[in-house]
Amino acid sequence: PGDQEAGELGLAAVPGRQAAFRQGLAAAVHYARAVGCPRIHLMAGRVPLGTDRAAVAGEMETTFIENLRYAADLLAQEDMIGLLEPINNRITDPRYYLNTPHQVAAILEKVGRPNLKLQLDLFHCQIMDGNLSRNLETYFPLLGHIQIAQVPGRHEPDSPGELNFPYIFELLESLGYTGYVGCEYAPKGDTLEGLGWLRSYWDSRGLQHGGTSTAAQ
Questions:
Q1: HEC secondary structure over the chain
Q2: Which residue range forms the structural domain that includes residue 144?
Q3: Which UniProt keywords apply (predicted)?
Q4: Which of 8, 59, 66, 184 is labelled catalytic?
């Protein structure tokens, strides 16, 4: 993430911070190797304070592409995948550089490395664009990781909000998604209580707690 006390949230697209990006990436790879994690979120970073987004967009994209190619080559040596996550700039972070899956897809096409993928947080995607079914279908070939939270409260999937998660989970299954679904939300209570929705979902699908089919048993 860079120097968070100085207001940084990633470095990959921030001009002049290439050396710090490479240093942070090396540390991330070290930790990922130690815990057996094959995916690393390459955070783009924020538009620098006091600058106009449109005025620096070209320089930030050039920096981003350069850093991503470096990262992809390094990660390939470790058999790891780099992930790019768009974060909404309407509510969560007005200055974050990467905001939509469309922007990620365009960047990935320019970078041209197969071990870079889209990290799609449905909370951010709903706020920026909605149209989740079509977006999941369109960008599924680029998908490397999914994160979930209800909108607008960013709480558990079964909390009041805009998103129908049982439908979304079935859509992901029908598309052939076999990766993890990250619970990127703030529990309304404690963590264990906040996972009650998952037990209820398993029950509704005829699964034992743990996601195992009762029929298979």
A1: CCCHHHCCCECCCCCCCHHHHHHHHHHHHHHHHHHCCCEEECCECECCCCCCHHHHHHHHHHHHHHHHHHHHHHHHHCCCEEEECCCCCCCCCCCECCCCHHHHHHHHHHHCCCCEEEEEEHHHHHHHCCCHHHHHHHHHHHEEEEEECCCCCCCCCCCCCCCCHHHHHHHHHHHCCCCCEEECCCCCCCHHHHCHHHHHHHHHCCEECCCEECCCC
A2: 4-205
A3: Isomerase
A4: 184
